[in-house]
Amino acid sequence: MKKSNFVARLCPCHLAFALFAAGLAQTSQAQTTDWISLVWQNDLFSGRDGGGYTNGLFISLYQVAEAEAEPLVEPTLIKPLSWLLNDGYDLAFNEHSVGQVMITPADISKSTPAPHEVPYAGLLTYRASRVLVNDNIADMVRTTVGVIGPASMAEQSQKFIHKVVGSTEPKGWDYQLENEPVIAVRRARVWRYELSPMIDTVLLAQGRAGNLESAVGAGALVRFGRGLQRSFATTLLQQGRTSTPTAVEDGWYLYGGFEADYVFNNIFVNGNTYRDSPSSDLRHNQLSFTAGMSYAWDAFSVTFGYKSGTKLDIHDSSRDSFGTLSFAWKL
Fold first, then answer.
1. How far apart, in whole angstroms, are the C-alpha atoms of residue 61 and residue 239?
2. What are the domain boundaries of the chain?
3. Angstrom distance (rounded) from CA 256 to CA 11
4. Alpha helices of the chain — where are they, by DSSP H?
5. CATH value of 3-330 in 1.20.140.10, 2.40.128.140, 3.40.50.2300, 1.10.10.10
6. Which of 17, 157, 250, 298 lies 20 to 30 Å from 177 when distance is taken between CA atoms?
7. Secondary element (H or E) of residue 169
8. For residue range 19-42, what is the model confidence (pLDDT) as tens digits?
9. Which residues contact 324 (CB under 8 A, 6 or more apart)?
10. Is the pLDDT of residue 4 over 90?
11. What angle do CA 100, 106, 107 make, to 5 degrees?
12. How far apart are CA 116 and CA 114, in angstroms?
């Protein structure tokens, strides 16, 4: 590989981590309680390898502040969307995350993917979120930016991981989507209803827009455990492909739920936006189910979850089933 190409592929990584570092710098601007989390998602937890969402790895910083503390400054990418949120809150938290995502066809042993299967695609992403909590209602806005294509370096990551663990070598990355900058914004709200001191229901409504993905949806989650009121806002981070719920402050819970979405576009299925590329036919109506458990000590939290949903494309080449392992600790 030529040095110039190598440097060009590293630049998006540098940009993503620079944005994450900017989030870390904002931590010192207010009196906050800060958390770091590592999240690993993989389809091996479902007993399969390849065919849709196959791997995601994320590192996140969470800044949490009570209403009476110094105001928590919203992330830079959120400021244009701040008008979507109310001014007052009991609790606020910001999220800064960087991550890498991989999508593959069903049979990764083939050098040439079958026609109409979802294409190989890698995504390197940075996202910023702002959540405001008032009593039993929590609102969130999120902006996600990144690059899809060879610049994400997903090919190198998957081949390295598969070599280490002895899995099937993915041979079709020459047919991955081309480099393209992506963006998506998300607005979501959850409502918590206490059924008993140890059981609650959390209802969700959300919308997403961008060339990465556009969709509207709603869902519900039932939780059984302790400390439910303190952690219900983290269910905003649970819904979707790249996040997971978290118990906090010596809480714990078991959870199960569903989400129904109408998806207008998804670059992982539709292919590149502005050029010809491999693609499949998007399934617009999608339904997903999720279950798991989360346990928190005073300064640590561990979560394991599982998600299974309808295929992303109408040819059933892209299942949406994977497990999530998350570990968070207070700074």
1. 18
2. 3-330
3. 40
4. 3-26, 154-165, 228-231, 235-238, 267-270
5. 2.40.128.140
6. 17
7. none
8. 555 555 554 455 577 899 999 888
9. 39, 40, 41, 45, 244, 292, 303, 304, 305, 306, 307
10. no
11. 105
12. 6
pLDDT at position 22: 55
Write down the residue that tokens 């989400």 correspond to. Answer: 259
Query: Using CA atoms, how far apart are residues 61 and 21, in angstroms rounded to an integer?
Result: 10
Closest CA to 138 of 91, 189, 63: 189
What's the distance, CA 307 to chain centroid?
A: 13
Q: How far apart are CA 180 and CA 147, in angstroms?
A: 6
Q: Output the six-digit token pair for 193.
A: 């209803």
Lowest mean pLDDT among 10-14, 66-70, 114-118, 258-262: 10-14
Where does residue 129 rank: exposed (0-12), middle (13-18), buried (19+ CB within 10 A)?
buried
Note the pLDDT tens digit of each residue in 52-82: 778 889 999 999 888 777 778 889 999 999 8
The count of residues in the chain is 331
In the chain, count H helices and then E strands: 5, 12
Contact 20, 98 (CB under 8 A): yes
Q: Give the residue-averaged pLDDT of 103-130.
A: 89
Structure tokens at 183: 């963006």
Output the furthest CA–CA distance in the chain (Å, rounded).
62
Is residue 209's pLDDT more than 50?
yes
Q: How far apart are CA 292 and CA 10, in angstroms?
A: 36
| Average pLDDT along the chain | 85
Average pLDDT, stretch 278-284?
93
Distances (CA, A) of 98 to 8, 127, 331: 19, 7, 18
Distances (CA, A) of 120 to 77, 80, 172, 267: 29, 33, 7, 11
| Token pair for 188 | 């979501």
